[in-house]
Amino acid sequence: MGPHTSTFELLAKAGTGDEEALSLAFERYRGRLAVLVHFKMSPRARQFSDVEDVVQETLLRAFRDLNRFSYRTPGSFLRWLSSIADHVIVDRVRYLGRERRAGEEIPFRSESNPGGPEPADSRTPSRLFAQQEAIEGLLNRLEALPEEYRQAILLAKIEGLSTAEIAERLGKSREAASLLVYRAVKRFRALSEAAGT
Length: 197
Fold this sequence. Notes:
Blueprint: H1 7-15, H2 19-40, H3 43-48, H4 51-64, H5 76-97, H6 125-144, H7 147-158, H8 163-170, H9 174-195
Helix pairs in contact: 1-2, 2-4, 2-5, 2-6, 4-5, 7-9, 8-9
C-alpha cells in the first residue's frame, strides 16, 4: 500500500481483516491524536497519565470497536478517535480519584507477563524517540501561542474542521474565523522558523 492510499481505503481493507491497513490508518493519525490528547488533558492529569499512554489506549479501544465506526467524511475517523480519547481521559481521571484496585489495568506482554496482550505499537525505540521529540517540539510551539491562536490551529490543522465548522465552534463569523486561522498559522510559522524547524 502506497502512502497515497486514502483513509477510506485503509479502513475498508481493515474492515475485511487487513491488520496492516488498520495499522497504517492508526499511524497516519497518531501524531495529531497525541496533540489533541495533550490539550484535552489538564496539566494535573498529564502529571499522572502520559499522553502516549492515553493515545495507546485510545487506539486499542478503536481496534476493539472498529465495527462501530462508520466513515462519513474525510475528518470523521479523527473525530471518532478524538471522542474515544475523551472517554479514555475521563476514565483515567476517575481512576485517579479512586483508590487503585488490583487487576484494573491490563499490563502489556512482557517477560514478567507473557500472557498479556501485544502492544499495538511495535516500532523501534529510535523511531519512537524521534517521533516523540517532534511531537514535543510541536507542543512547545503550540503552548507558546495565545490561547485563541492555539485553539484555531487545533481546530483547523489538527482536527481538520472547515472554516464554517470552526466559526460555529468558536461562535464567530466565517470571515473572523478565517482571519483568526490565518493569523494563528502565521504566528506558528514564525515560532517554527525561530526554533529552526
